[in-house]
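tool=predict chain=A
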Amino acid sequence: MQTVNEFPYQVSEHAHVQIPMPDGTLLSARIWRPETDVPLPAILEFLPYRKRDGTAERDALTHPYMAGHGYVCVRVDMRGCGDSQGLFDDEYSPQELSDGVAVINWLAAQEWCSGDVGMMGISWGGFNGLQIAALAPEPLKAVVSICSTVDRFADDIHYKGGVMLGENVGWASTVLGWFALPPDPEIYGDGWREAWLHRLENTPFLAEKWVQEQARSAYWKHGSVCEDYSAIKAAVLSVGGWHDGYRNTIAHLVENLDAPVKGLIGPWIHKYPHFAAPGPRIDFLGEMLRWWDRWLKGVDNGVENLPDMRRWLMDSVPPASSYDERPGKWIGDPATATNAATEDWHLTGQTLSQKQGKAGRVIAPALLCGQAAGEYFPVSLAPAGTVPGELPGDQREDDALSCCFESAPLQDARSIVGAPSVRLNLTSDRPRAQIIARLCDVHPDGQSTLISHGVLNLRHRDGHETFVDLPVGEPLDVEVTLDHCAYTVPAGHSLRLALSSSYWPYVWPESELANLELHTGTIALPVRADRDDEPTVSFDLPKAATPRRTRQLSETKNKKTITKDLGTARLTLDILGDTGLVEDLETGLISGTRLQEQFAITDRDPNSAHSSFTWQRRIGRGDWQVVIDAKVSMRTDGESFLVAAELKASENGTEVFAKNWYSAVPRL
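tool=predict ok
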């Protein structure tokens, strides 16, 4: 990645600018301002992740670059987080979104601002950028939303297809530890300790809330912009990665927004595309700059004429837990005509055939299926060989525990671009069941690479708002929509559809084991043909501003271990991630994070499932040292989810806060 040190504008940085909210609470902003008397547009990134240390590394690569090209870049800590006053209550809460609107209006009113504002962000910042845009504050003219969602229930880290994700309580533990850190005394000044202890005393038990809301209730509809796409008036650049959990949003926005919108999706994980893996990386700062120039400065640069969807069409590769690069090519398509014709493949015996037939198979319980799923949304890739299983590995172990249908070797290559869907007619012997569908690329040597997958709680077959038990012994029709993908299966390879009724630890299993008898089934593949007028899609090489200066003080550690007790048939997955201690040479802050995750389950006993997530976060400077220990765990007794959490905080070796939570949440 090229480092750029010279810009059209000199930039001055302001580490702590306080922005007043209507109730008097002061939010802390870090601002990069071009040195000019001419008012310029502002670009806001609004996050809970601690601008002083949490996002400082990526901020250094991005915001000075944008400021150097004529934008006031503003990175704001949310209420109750980092160096801001107040209390955090929940993700994407009405208070958060109201604060975001107030920040935008404050920015637009400053003498150094032209009155036009953009919002940018990845993940949380991508989410609230869309949500605040749906509130339509007048100064907000453009949004760049990366790795985000339009539907907080159906397509977020909590639930998928109406099934609780294994990461639901994992995310609760992340938030519990992350937001328990104190303000930086050097920034916050007198009163920092009182503010910190007040935060700790008012820590919300979000794990309980997120487990309670098991259907698509009003809680999840709040902030889900799919409820009313027309509310968004700002121009939206939607960006994502095929190796991220939020790969569906881009097509949803491009197909549904009335406002100007473009989609861009590459082979990346949950990172900004100028430094994400796998490659190829792109000049994403240049992409954003052109978006801002067009919609915040009125520059006629033609971005509205770009293809509606720019996708990286991935070539077939052997399965691996990490990749440096994903071979393929860039393709461009309009929103309304993706040049993909639906191709139906029928489940016939043990085969996928283009001729109709009967499936005549049973999906039998296999609770250990899912060990090759990889992480729900990878955040980083460790060096090769150090963290197996970050991305989906060879699917053959899971395939062996699934009901599989496989095509003959393909005579011609097929580029699958879009969202495959599986239609099944089946009978269940239990009133509750789930189904997982995986589409795989089977290589001539037998290796199996995951192309896409989908999950469905069969009690949500008529929608995610209600639970409807299965009519035991009666056939019914269901449809499972798989995640969007762009993948070329070469000639000589085969297609495999693998069906299972559990997928641990990716999703939480049902409370009882069900046998699903398949009568008929079809998978519809969106197969894209090359176009005679194929648009040229290309990008410059990545560039960034000068990286933050740091020093690694202790080694990083990453380890993943899968243990199976042959006597008890209990399978345990242990994951360790440790960043080591890192010193910021600009601020003097020393910080580090250590995460231990454990998932365990006993075959044939769905109520044996257990997960725990333990975070330790450290921050300090000189003789001031803070340690946060946070843990969230969950198990089930068949009738309820049993959720526990604990939080401890110490300063200079002395415990200053400790609290435990516990809740038995009925399974709906």
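DSSP finds eleven helices and 35 strands in the chain. Residues 94-108 form the longest helix (15 residues).
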